[in-house]
Every structure is written in structure tokens, then in C-alpha cells.
């Protein structure tokens, strides 16, 4: 499977990997995480709220997030690229503000633990995961026994999993890599996705869409218009040639037999 009919997912995966590699090569990874006390309260670097979800600072998180967004590209196919891109932008704005506020409120209870917000779009991934959980059905289920095979009369003892379980496992591992900051972001992202789907947010936010040109809708419309124009021209040309041939045949039928014989002798001479 590829990114067919999922251009936004392709852009997200390629952009995430490229930005993470670029931050590492340029040695600017220290700009993409947040220390609440230092960066926000002391120096007022509030631009970090919009920057910390642009990339990750270690390869394990990049790998899990890229696989996660790739596996959830079916959400874009079900929604369409424009709605999916609008959802990503809306989720990014909510998850850029809410996790820092929560950690700021809880920081007095554990200043050393709740002062750090890790880099990366983990909250956005969990917002998409909430849609993936609700929209995409599982294809199959399988069981893993936790003990020896019991007699047929006893109930099965083990775990029942589906083909979607590995996606949840990777996302859960990503949420726990730099907890509690990553875990708080994951919970906020999941709740954002659920609120968006259930209409808890204002309708103006849910119905908002990014401009069509950002996802190539204008180009697609122009291509469709040119294709329709070409087909109309071909149909008009076919109809014209058919009409001329029909008129010639009708004229032949209107001439008498003697006129047709005279015309044949004139062409021979």
C-alpha cells in the first residue's frame, strides 16, 4: 500500500521525518522542547508553543510516529484531504495550548517532573488515533493464550487482539517514552479527537476548512474542467462529421437513377 488518495498523510510523514533529521543535523533540537519555568515564565518564549510539535528529538519517536501516521492514512481517505487537513490544523492549535496549561497548573505538586514538555506531534497523532479507532473497523481478531491449553469444557484464558492492536501498542509506547509530559499530551490529543468527532467543540471550529488550494482542489477542478472541455470538443467534432456524412448520403438518395448514372460517366471521363 502507498499514499494513494492520501496526499496530506504523505506530507505529514515526509515533513516530520525531514524536520527531525534537519533539527539533528543543524543542532537546533533545543528549540523544540519546553521547560515551563525557564522558557515560558522567565524568558517569555511563547513561540515554542507553536514550534514544539514540529519534530521529534530522537529517532525512536520519529519511527513510531511516522509508522503511526502512515497506518492511519485511511482516515484521510474516508474524510477527504481537505477535512483531514483542517482537522490536523485544529488539533494542532488545541494541543499546542492545553497541555502546557495543564502542566502549569499541576507543576506546583511536582516541580521537577511536570516542568518538561517533550518535542513532537504526539498529541496530534492521538487525535487522529481517536478517529481511527471510531471509523476504521478491524479486519480480524486473534487470541493469545496465557496458560496451557485448557479442556474444551473450560472457558478460554488469554488475550483477544485484532489487527489494529499493534497500532495502539506503538502509540502507547510513544506516549510513555517521555512521560509524564508525553502522556499528558497523548491524553489531551485523544480527548481533542473525541470532542471533534462528537460535536462537543463549537460548530464554527468543526465546520472550518483550510483553503482548497492547499490540498490541490483547485488544480483538480481545473484538470476536470479541461477534460470536460476536451470531451465536448471531441463529441462536437464527431457529431459534425456524422452530420456531414448523413447529409451526403441523404443527397445521394434524393437524386434520380439517371442523374447518378450521368455523374458516374462524368467522373470516368
Q: CATH homologous superfamily? A: Rhomboid-like
Strand order of the largest sheet: 1-2
Largest sheet: 2 strands, antiparallel
- C-alpha Rg, in Å? 31 Å
Tell me the helix content: 55-70%
- Cα shape: extended
The end-to-end distance, rounded to whole angstroms, is 71 Å
Topology at a glance:
Layout: H1 7-25, E1 34-35, H2 36-42, H3 48-51, H4 59-71, H5 73-79, H6 81-106, E2 116-117, H7 122-135, E3 141-145, E4 158-162, H8 165-176, H9 181-197, H10 203-206, H11 217-254, H12 257-268
Antiparallel strand pairs: 1-2, 3-4
Helix pairs in contact: 1-4, 4-8, 5-6, 6-7, 6-9, 7-8, 7-9
Summarize the structure in words.
The chain contains twelve helices and four strands. The chain is mostly helical. The chain has one domain (7-145, 158-217): Rhomboid-like fold, CATH 1.20.1540.10. The mean pLDDT is 85. Helix 6 packs across helix 9 (181-197). The strands form two sheets. A two-stranded antiparallel sheet has the order 1-2.
Brief descriptors of the model:
269 residues; mainly alpha; Rhomboid-like fold; two-stranded antiparallel sheet; extended; Putative UBA domain-containing protein Ucp14; transmembrane; serine-type endopeptidase activity; transmembrane helix
Amino acid at each position: 500500500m502507498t499514499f494513494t488518495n492520501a496526499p496530506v498523510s504523505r506530507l505529514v510523514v515526509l515533513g516530520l521525518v525531514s524536520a527531525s533529521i534537519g533539527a539533528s543535523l543543524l543542532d537546533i533540537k533545543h528549540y523544540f522542547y519546553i521547560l515551563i519555568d525557564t522558557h515560558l515564565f522567565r524568558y517569555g518564549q511563547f513561540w515554542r508553543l507553536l514550534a514544539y510539535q514540529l519534530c521529534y528529538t530522537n529517532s525512536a519517536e520519529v519511527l513510531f510516529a511516522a509508522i503511526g501516521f502512515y497506518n492511519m492514512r485511511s482516515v484521510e481517505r474516508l474524510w477527504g484531504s481537505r477535512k483531514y487537513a483542517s482537522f490536523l490544523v485544529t488539533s494542532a492549535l488545541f494541543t499546542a495550548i492545553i497541555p502546557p496549561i495543564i502542566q502549569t497548573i499541576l507543576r506546583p505538586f511536582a516541580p521537577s517532573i511536570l516542568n518538561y514538555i517533550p518535542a513532537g506531534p504526539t498529541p496530534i497523532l492521538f487525535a487522529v488515533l481517536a478517529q481511527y479507532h471510531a471509523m476504521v473497523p478491524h479486519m480480524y481478531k486473534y487470541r493469545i493464550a496465557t496458560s496451557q491449553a485448557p479442556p474444551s469444557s473450560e472457558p478460554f484464558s488469554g488475550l483477544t487482539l485484532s489487527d489494529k492492536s499493534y497500532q495502539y501498542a506503538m502509540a502507547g509506547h510513544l506516549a510513555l517514552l517521555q512521560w509524564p509530559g508525553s502522556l499528558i499530551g497523548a491524553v489531551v490529543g485523544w480527548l481533542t479527537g473525541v470532542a471533534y468527532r462528537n460535536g462537543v467543540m463549537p460548530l464554527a471550529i468543526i465546520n472550518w476548512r483550510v483553503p482548497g488550494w492547499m490540498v490541490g482542489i483547485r488544480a483538480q477542478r481545473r484538470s476536470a474542467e479541461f477534460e470536460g472541455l476536451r470531451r465536448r470538443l471531441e463529441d462536437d467534432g464527431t457529431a459534425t462529421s456524422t452530420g456531414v456524412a448523413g447529409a451526403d448520403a441523404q443527397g445521394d438518395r434524393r437524386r434520380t437513377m439517371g442523374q447518378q448514372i450521368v455523374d458516374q460517366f462524368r467522373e470516368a471521363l
